[in-house]
Amino acid sequence: MSALNWAAVEIWLLRHAAAEERASSGRDADRTLTEDGHKRAREVARGLAALEPGIELVLTSPYARARQTAEPAARALKLSGRLRETAALEPDRDPAEILEEVRAERVESVLLVGHEPHMGALLGRLVLGRGGHAIPMKKAAVARVEWDGSGPGSLRALLPPRVLARIASGGD
Questions:
Q1: Alpha-carbon distance 48 to 142, whole Å?
Q2: Residue (of 148, 156, 88) closest to 122 by Cα position
Q3: Going from the N-terminus, what domains does the chain have, and what CATH number goes with each?
Q4: Which residues have CB under 8 Å from 104's CB, separation 6+?
Q5: Secondary structure of residue 154 in the 3-state scheme
Q6: Backbone dihedral region of 117: left (phi > 0), alpha (psi from -120 to 50 degrees) or beta?
Q7: What is the model's pTM?
Q8: Where are the beta strands (DSSP E) in the chain?
Q9: Predicted local distance difference test score (pLDDT) of residue 3
């Protein structure tokens, strides 16, 4: 798809919240959020919704901890029916894969939920317009990038989870 027939999109990135160090199965994909991770995911979801971002679709890694972070966000954004898992957000994937998927969705605003180092590599690619550079994200942090489908995008926000929690509580 050429940049000429591509409309700009707002890409919101959310790194999963704090997860257990090891799953009982021993599989990384099965690691779930800690109790604090669940709490933080809910706070971040409420803070994100308070920003009224106009997100139309939530895409998440199929790994348990990402899905558990994406679900409260989808509920808070009233998008539970627009939450979908994609292997393109697994930790070892090339960021180009998810960008192709976003292009195919033809939405104006999307939330992507995943892992480090993938999210940092994706953010670096979006902001710098090329791969090979990462902008690491803290657990449960949110970034917002306006991207026209080619070249560098514009980083509009990089919000740590504590800021989103404050937004959720009305600034108290």
A1: 8
A2: 88
A3: 14-105+114-168 (3.40.50.1240)
A4: none
A5: strand
A6: alpha
A7: 0.94
A8: 9-15, 57-60, 83-85, 109-114, 142-147, 154-159
A9: 43
